[in-house]
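Below: protein 1.
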Amino acid sequence: MKPAPIPSNEVERQKSLEAMSVLSTPRDPELDRITRLAERLFGSDIVAISLLDNDRQFFKSRVNLSVSETSRDISFCGHAVMYDAPLVVPNALEDERFHDNPLVTGGPEIRSYLGVPISNQQGYKLGTLCVIDGNQRNFTKEEIQTLQDLARWVETVLALRYTERSQQQLLKDLDTAQRELLIDTLTGIWNRRGLEELLSREISAAQMKKTPVGIFMLDIDHFKSINDTNGHLIGDKVIQSISEIMSSSLRDQDITGRFGGEEFVCILPGLRLERMMYLGYKICETIAEQCKVPNKDGEQISVTVSVGATWVSPQTTELYGSEQILQMADDALYKAKQAGRNTVRYLPLDAHGSLEVLDEAPPESPAV
């Protein structure tokens, strides 16, 4: 095996990458859309956006890949960034660089690889957009061009995303090691500690801007039964699938995280009160429709969620702390469970937050 080489401008490249505050950050819904599209277009086993960071490659977005990072020295992407053209490996077993690579001889048993370098606005190669298969594959010129087009899309998203996002101030305030403590390793979204930090910041921002904040707390229905019947690996896939669906279903400024176990929290800055129930039911419907995880027999598991909602009005953002808000959302979630699951219940924090609890989803979305 030939270890991945190090670019001659590595020091400058690494500084430029770190300045973007993109490492050890939650999944990005727009980047996830690109990798899902690549999976559909190529029919490949694995798709990833890989960023090369010191001695590791961090997967900013990934499809059918359970780990969030691997060692850089064994990475195919470490080789790909050395070239301006795509790296094409039809059969890794016949390539002297990779034939005895542990990613080839062991899991995920890579056989074919196509990777296109992605660069930032300063011209430094950050990593790659890559498609990987467990079978030998000869990529066509059209397929290579398609992945190059998708890679340019990735570059555009990275250039736009990491400038003016509501979550970026937290990322700028912390170094990479600190940020890693705020990310859930299974799903790539914020963990409980990160959610609590971000909720506190969003409440402070709402106080200054005089804007509302909505909160959803979600719980996977009958998750213990899913685990007991199918095993924890299938349960993990259900959790990963739901996290991806939530991230891609909400607005760019919304914040999603895993609160613990099978519970998730969504922080919704600026959400209008009259839109809360619609959006809550929409999340329930979308997860029921799109969460398609096969069980150990290959049959699709039926997955639903219950949602508890609360809302902080512009007039009362100074009255409530993060713990009170999360507790109210949790109380609302308990009522949703009592109501039969796969539904939404709302509890107001104050007199400004009166909203009728509906038994079924509104027929259409109210204006934003």
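Below: protein 2.
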Amino acid sequence: MKNTAAGVPFILICVLLDILGIGLIIPVLPQLVGDLAGSQSAQAWWLGAMLIAYGLMQFCFAPTLGALSDRYGRRPVLLLGIFGLGIMFLVPALSQSLPVILFSRILGGMFAGNIAVAQAYISDVTDKAHRAAAFGKLGACFGIGFILGPALGGILGENDVRLPFFIAGILSLLNFLYGLFVLPESLKTRERRTINFKTLNPLSSLARLTKFKYIGALIAVIALSGFAQSMLHSTWTLFTNFRFNWTPFNIGLSLVVMGLVTAVVQGFLLKKLLKVFGEQKLIL
């Protein structure tokens, strides 16, 4: 097994802090947008634009960051993404302009694509025997971040909706400094590849996957399921605020409950349910 003394722990911390930062702003972003928009309809429009821009840019630029890391190494691309995400967290904390905040979400989505580089780093520094366990820890960091982030964001944002953005930005910049001095490069020079511009198209990557038996149908299932869940999550904050006057604390608490239920089902119940129902029935 390759030396992972500094690499894997940093990647796990990197992902945890990235997801924690994203979770921190989920309960407070709608209120910040609402304070600047002036009406519920304008608030919904601007928030929707920000969510679409962030997700779309992350989808489009993940292959680009992955290709850049294949060419120039994982370390510089990871550090660039972490630093950029930290700056983009700070912009909404300081800005009074909705277009500026929207632009920060566009750039933030681009930098957030470095999650793909983090996964590539894990593959570089682990052998097949330990890779599944390492990716399991990576998934656990996702879960912890999405549970703790909204909780902290709701508490911190109850009196000041901009405070979670400051905290998220500071965490990312501290993460950058940690990586600058600790993170080793995982990709050897002889393993680096030239950039293949065909691979930069995320749709072409999905198209190649569909050539494998059953994969196309599975991708369609995952896409439609993810689409439905994304619609729920993106409208949840507005719905609960408009209908029930929920504050960032209430919204954050509800998201924590969702995260805990997901963790319990995936971590404890899934194996038992699979034995009872089987994969196909459980998916349905």
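The chain has one domain: 7-190+197-283.
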